[in-house]
Structures are given as structure tokens and as C-alpha cells.
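Hi there,

I know you've been waiting on this one. I reran it after we fixed the sequence typo, so this is the corrected version. Both the input and the resulting structure follow.
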Amino acid sequence: MMINNNKQTSHSGVAEVDKGIFWPALITVVVVLISMVLFEEGAKDVLKSIFSFVSNQLGFAYMWAGAFFLGAVAWLSFGKYSHIRLGGPDARPEFGRMSWIAMFFCSGIGTSLIYWAAIEWTYYYNSPPFGLEAQSQAAAEYAAMYGMFHWGPIGWAFYCLSAFPIGYAYYNRKSGGLRLSSACAGIIGEKNANGVMGKIIDIMLIFGLVGATATALASGTPMLAEALSKLVGIEHTFSVDIAVVCIWTAIFVTSVVLGLKKGIKMLSDVNLVAVLILCFIVFVGGPTFFMLNMFTDSFGLMLSEFTRMSFYTDPVGKSMFPQWWTIFYWAWWAAYGPYMGIFIARISRGRTFRELGLTVTLAGSAGCMLFFMLFGNNMMHAELNELYPVLETIKEEGAPVAILGVLLQLPMEWLILPLFVFVGFVYSGTTVDSSAYVMASISSKQLHEGQEPSMYNRLFWALVLGATGLVVMNVGGLEPLKTASIVVGLPLAFLMVISFLSLLRWLREDLEENSAVTHKSNVTAERPVSSDSNDFDLKPVIEGV
């Protein structure tokens, strides 16, 4: 039955923890972490086999999922339901447009975008796709472009699609919870969504989110630690990595105390300004025209090769390029997808389906492409013109050293370094805080509109994410969580499809109900009145017409 969209129910206070989700999810994460520490060597062969089977044999499923998700988001944005507004026709946005964009962009990418935007091209340049010659002109052109593809519209469609059913269930149908299980209720049924099946779905989502977030932190934290070491003039050791984690822990603890509007929103707004300043310095101080020309060439190449790359699995050549990159990326986006769907839905009340689909997909892609244009092309220019030995430095000293080495060749290095450190810390803090917010939302009972997850619930999951990131960096266990992401991502992608079908069912039911109510009202207003009545009054009939 369609719930009255115009009636807003306000709830205050915080939501109670759902122990049926909280404890199983926590136990699962702890068991995996302990296994990573105790059985690191023995588990490598098993994990390698799992990764190879999923990526090699089931890689096609991720490719089709990416194409389906992009098409579904486009259909919801331009189709007959594009006018649907989260919260009902009278709902108005809770956040301004720029703050809204800053929140989902900063929460969705973190420091991992800076890291991969700067050095991802080096992998493609040395081991290019489609049988291209390594370190050739064609390899350089594809290398500059492929990262934009991996962080482009398909990836953001993974983020965006589940926001539609989750937001519609929460704001329009008053489901009483920001969960993927609630968004699937239209297909699996309310009883299953609130029962064991729903809890399994939400526990799986938390596990996938821990793996995806820890993977991002494990790749971004060493880069930030390298920058901090250069800033204060000390050697980069694991102790510095721990210090970095402690600093952004303080940042997200502060954000947790301040709440969603004053915490995550404030951090995102500040970070947006700092990032734009950093990007402006790189753009003006770096090889400006090379970056612009390379971006133009890459954009055109991406448009011409988009379909080919979207379905490239290389079953004959067996180069493993799509398995190690595109399929892994799609799995990573899928593992993050429901989390971002929940977070985007939470901050998108008052937005229409068209606003939601187009803004998230296009603004998210454009922001990522900006980073690849500036940081990636700046690094490539330094290598190709022998201004800095990027490839050699990455091989000998690591990617963080190379990234900072190229950036510090630019003018205003006295400003670039502290600004880079600041941006990195705020990015990490925002990513962890928003992830913890979603995990706390999932593990809360009946999170009604106007309520927030318990501060202690959010803080606990944030600490779990930080601890996981440290374990991953300490034991060199990026591979286990990379495998976890790609394995968990597949069922989560399937569940996102279920939530989409659930949304379609709700929309049809609600549209038919509204049409029936409207038709009944019109028939009642226009029904002729018997001439036998002595008290006949023409006023209702005239007003009805």
C-alpha cells in the first residue's frame, strides 16, 4: 500500500543497536583479521585460487553487471519515473547542491583516488591491454585513458543504482531502516527482509564494506605517511603509518561527535576547497598544455573504445589485464556500491530520480577525470620528458616517493606539501566517518527519518576500520581483502539488481494506486444525481467539474 508522501514523521534521539546484525558482523570481521595474521602464508594459495576462479571464470558477470547498472541508472534518470522525488512531491533538499556533491564525492573515493590517479598509468604503460607494445606511443595513450574509464560512469553507476531503491524505501515508503535488505523487500518479501535472510544480506554488506574500505586505506595511508615524513623531516617507518591512522582517527572522532550535518558535511566542504586549490596549483605550475591535450586525446579514445573495454575479458590472449584491473575495479565498486547507495540515499532527500542519477554519475566521473588529468598526466610528462625518473623510483623506493617527488618539482612546494597532507587527512577522515555511519545505520534497529545511529555505534565501526587498515598494512595482507572484495562483490551486485527490481515493483504498485485514487475521485465528482431528490444541490457537481 502506498504511504502518504506528504506526511512527514519526525523522530528524535538515536536508534538502538540491532544485536542480531552487530555481533555476527563483528565476529566475522574479527575472525578474518585473526586468520590474516596467524595463517598469512598458508592462506595465500587458497586465496589465489579463489581469486583466479572468480576473476577468470566469473569475470563476465561483473562486465555484464557494469553495463546493466549504467543502463539502469540512465533509464531511471530519463524514463517515466525520472520525476519521482525522494520524500514525496513536496520534499525539498536537505543539503545545498555543492555540499551534496562534495559529501558523496569525498566519501566515495578518499585518498585512494589521489594515489591511483597519479600512478595507475604506469602499470598500463608497462603492461598494456589489447596486445600493445609496452612503453610505446599507443601504450602511453591507453595508459592515460584507462584510469579515467575505471573511475568513470560505470563505476559511479555501481555507487548510484542502489541509492534509488534504498532512498525510495526509506523516504517514500517509510521502511524504518537504511538497509539493503529493506530495499529488496519488494522481491523477497517483508518477512524475509526482516528475518534471517535480511540479516545475512546486511552482514554480507558490512563485511564487503570493511574489505573495500581497508583496501582503500591500505593503499592511501603509506602515501600520506610519506608526505607527512617529508613535511616534518623524519624517516618514513611503520610508526609513521600508525601516527597517520591516529591523526585521521582524531578527525573522524571529532566528526562523529559533531554529527552528519556539522561533521561529514563540514569536512567535505572544507576538503572541496582545499582540493580545488591543490588542483589549481598543479594545473598552473605543471605542464598545463600537455595535461589539456592529453586529457582531450584520452577522452576521445575512451569514447571510441568504451564498448570494447566494457566487455573485454581476453579469454584467448589470457593477458589477465581485465581480470587484474577492470574486473577487480568493478568488484571493488560493487563491494562499495550498497554502502554508497545507503549514504547517497541518506543525503538525497528532496532530490528527483533525474537529479540523483545524472548528478552522481556525471559529477562523480568528472571529479575523478580531473584528478587523472592533473596528477596522472603530470607524472607521465615527467617520465616521458626525463624530468623525473617515475618508473625507476616506483621500482626502487615505492609509489608514494615517486608521487611526492614529482609534485615537489612544481612551484610553491612550500604550499603543496602541507596542502597535500591536509587534503589526504580530511579525505581519509571523511571516508572512514561515512563508512562507519553506514555500518552503524545497518546495525541499528528501526532507524526512522530524523534519527541518527548511536555515536558509540559509529565510533566503534570507525575504530574497526582503522584497525583493519593497520593489520592489512602490517602483514602485507592486501591480497586477502582484495580477494574478499572481488568475492563478496558478486553477490552484492546480484542483490543490487534485486533491489532495482524491487523498486520497479513498488513504483508500478504506487503508480497504479495513485491512478485508481484519482480515477475514483473524478468519477465521484462527475456522477449524475437522481432527479427524484428534492434536496438536489448543484454546487458539489460544479466544483467537481
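Quick highlight: The chain has one domain: 22-34+65-510.

Best,
R. S.
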